[in-house]
Amino acid sequence: MIVVLKHNVSQARKEQLIAWLENLGLRIHVSDGEYQTVLGLIGDTSRVDMDLVASLEIVDSVKRVSEPFKCCNRKFHPDDMVVEIGSVKVGGGHFAMIAGPCSVESEEQIVTVAKAVKASGANLLRGGAFKPRTSPYDFAGLKATGLELLKIARQETGLPIVTELMNIMDIDLFEDVDVIQVGARNMQNFDLLRELGKLDKPVLLKRGLANTLKELLMSAEYIMASGNERVMLCERGIRTFSDYTRNTLDLSAVPMLHELTHLPVIVDPSHATGIAKLVPPMALAGAAAGADGLIIEVHNDPMHALCDGAQSLRPEDFDALAKKVFAVREICRA
Questions:
Q1: Beta strands 88-90 and 231-235: pairing type?
Q2: Is-contact 328 282, C-beta < 8 A?
């Protein structure tokens, strides 16, 4: 249920109404917009007399929310969420260009790539330290050592770092990580999501390879219901009948998610296609579709990459792509 208050309601009267609703056993999500305040009522709202609330002088309207997701519902929070990561802002017109290698392999590699992508306009550095791999024989990352190398790259460039957490047991190692990524395979690891909800740290939540948008939003709800509202969603492609690409990039998810939720939406064309030459056109399409950011794999030597070299761009190719992405965004803003 949402309660929309009239314009210019005093803080004292607003707090009085919130206290009364909380006494009914509800949790109240407050969204203060420029012209109105929206109270999102979370919990068993069956005990709330809608007619009584609607009759209050300070209330403009009362509506039931039928969707199972509440905290991440745009009806609860009409304005776009802006996630702040140090000096970087994502959402609400602020664009994130996240770039870096699939996996951290050495200090020289990650620092070289970090400097290159920053020079091309990236404002966040991605890199895998803990890697979920389909085969148990594939390179699974440098783990804690990889995290330390990412921090060195951050120190060298100033770029905040984005990296994946796979296991609750490793969460303490991520204390100094700027953005924790939840990979597609962990999208419904609900114990992990609850723990991330206890942190005051941005989370990049990737859509599972066979999950619906509602399931993605319900996973975001687990994080937000536990107290952490700094969530970004990521469309990274889903498994379909396509036999030429790694996955199928669902670009319709971008405007649909923007309609359903106030959370920023990031597009990952690298994992969606699995083919380097397809990354640029899909990245441009994602920007044109209204994505709040892109996450792109960049490697200084893709042919010898230990992970996903086939989908990684060279720094010079990323530089050319970044210029086109920024141009597309300018056109779409016009």
A1: unpaired
A2: no
Nearest to 300 by CA among 317, 286, 287, 323: 317
Can you tell me whether residue 47 is helix, strand or coil?
A: helix
Global confidence as pTM: 0.92
- Continuous H helices in 134-278: 144-157, 190-196, 213-225, 253-260, 269-273
Q: Give me the residue label for tokens 């208050």.
A: 5
Gap between the Cα atoms of 203 and 231, Å rounded: 5
**Residue where the block lists tokens 């990521």:** 234
Per this entry, what is the length of the chain?
Answer: 334
H or E element that contains 283: helix 279-288
Judge whether 200 and 177 are in contact, CB under 8 Å: no
Rounded Cα–Cα distance for residues 332 and 95 (Å): 13
- Between these two residues, 35 and 257, which has the higher pLDDT value? 257
Structure confidence by residue, pLDDT tens digits, 276-297: 999 999 999 999 999 999 999 9
Written as one letter, the residue type at 240 is T
Residue listed under structure tokens 């892109």: 294
- Distance, in Å, from the CA atom of 311 to the CA atom of 322, rounded to the nearest integer, reads 16
